[in-house]
Amino acid sequence: MSAARPRVVIIGGGFGGLFCARRLARVDVDVTLLDRAACHVFQPLLYQCATGTLSIGQISRSLREELEHHENVRTLLGEAIRLDPAGRRVTARRPDDSTFDLDYDYLVIAAGMRQSYFGNEDFAAWAPGMKTLDDALSIRRRVFAAFEIAETLPPGPERDQWLTFAVTGAGPTGVELAGQIRELATRALANQFHSIEPEDARVLLFDGGDRVLKTFAPDLSARAQRVLEDLGVEMRFGVRVSDVRRDGITVSPKDGSPDADVATRTVLWTAGVEAVPFARHAAEVLGATTDRSGRIAVDADLSVPNHREVFVIGDLTGRDGLPGVAENAMQGGMHAAACMRRDLQGKRRKNFRYRDLGSAAYISRGHALMQLGPVKLSGLSGWIGWGFIHIAFLTGVRNRFSTVGTWLATIARSNRSDRTFILGGSGHPEEPYTWESPVHQGGSSRDTSGEDKTA
Ligand SMILES: Cc1cc2nc3c(=O)[nH]c(=O)nc-3n(C[C@H](O)[C@H](O)[C@H](O)COP(=O)(O)OP(=O)(O)OC[C@H]3O[C@@H](n4cnc5c(N)ncnc54)[C@H](O)[C@@H]3O)c2cc1C
């Protein structure tokens, strides 16, 4: 360790990185929090942003603003691209493609997971995932534009394609998205079109398992399924989406029955997660083992074997089946900070113990699930509990107040206040009007940073 104060570099300002940085504010170290997006995103509410209830500003907060009173913490915009464990140096890329180096005594890798297409990266061009603000805005554009395009078409198969929405993955995110699109179609949009009937929109939810929300108890999952059926969501289980194209998908049943093509112009992908590219590189140069999705194996104190100075926290942690949920990331961040403090005090590190504070999933207006040990809530009581939890953990007091205000207005008026979507504006070749162009596809700026999660 260097003679000056120990330098801590944290990669990623999600739940794990942010909680680690906050906890280190009281420790005698200099902290650099590096994030490729410079803001903390409250991922559990991304779907509300995608479907027009909340704005991106309500579910995110600038890390610089969030940490402005933590004098020993600086925040930097940049994407970690290289790790030199022997030299204890991280190289980061700025958005203009230039690079800079950060030296560390302690490194905390909290870069999260990104959507996985199971090796079919070409699907991403037609089927955005749901991990970043870019994803949420891309989904918003596709969903609202699909209704608008359908309005301009005569009745027939082409219009029907635009009014068919396919969602892959029946975990919490897929369920939330599917339910929200049907709610949009049957409430907020119901009386606003002249040519189409928005409530005719079909929402298809595909999953390889045999029920929705399989991390929840079977009775809760069955209740969620009934609510979705009442909403009009069509569920297909025991299937895999094996191809995604501009104008449709192919669905392959796991029992070997023949494949079926579904004509749709809107596909939303929530089916799997994998480690961000930097994490895979880091694992390799650190000589660490990873699981199939790229989670990095760590010792009981969350440090990488043979690298006591490197911690892996949050979704990237590969140990004891730790869940990919916000609570695990927050507790991991605070634990890594506590280990560093104990090192400086000459005390032995403690092992990480995850305390399960339960899971929650939103189904539709007035319906959510909550599960904590033997306590199971659904319907209205689950919905109220879900609301309290999400407000409690949303970053920033202003965001909490404005989100509660927006929710109350949405409940009272059934409208969506953040429906604005952006198409290319200038006519410049790099800003085309149509999103089905190489520029938009290449520029979807997928985060290098989920299987689906619950609270
Ligand atoms: C749609 C959705 C809904 C969810 N709902 C719930 C829920 O209801 N309850 C719940 O408990 N959990 C939920 N989760 C899971 C929860 O959000 C994650 O478990 C949690 O965010 C993980 O925290 P993390 O710090 O490990 O990673 P993240 O929060 O993903 O943060 C990673 C950060 O690292 C940054 N980053 C990535 N790569 C780099 C790089 N190379 N260089 C620099 N920065 C980088 C990213 O910009 C990001 O800010 C949900 C997740 C999603 C996607």
From TrEMBL:
E.C. numbers: 1.6.5.9
Top-level class of the enzyme under EC nomenclature: oxidoreductase
Domain of life: Bacteria
Single GO term (MF): NADH dehydrogenase (quinone) (non-electrogenic) activity
InterPro entries per the UniProt record, alphabetical: FAD/NAD-bd_sf, FAD/NAD-binding_dom, NDH-2
Keywords in alphabetical order: FAD, Flavoprotein, NAD, Oxidoreductase
Region span, Disordered: 426-455
Domain FAD/NAD(P)-binding: 7-333
Catalytic activity reported: a quinone + NADH + H(+) = a quinol + NAD(+)
Family: Belongs to the NADH dehydrogenase family.
Protein name: NADH:ubiquinone reductase (non-electrogenic)
The species this protein was found in: Mycolicibacterium gilvum (strain DSM 45189 / LMG 24558 / Spyr1)
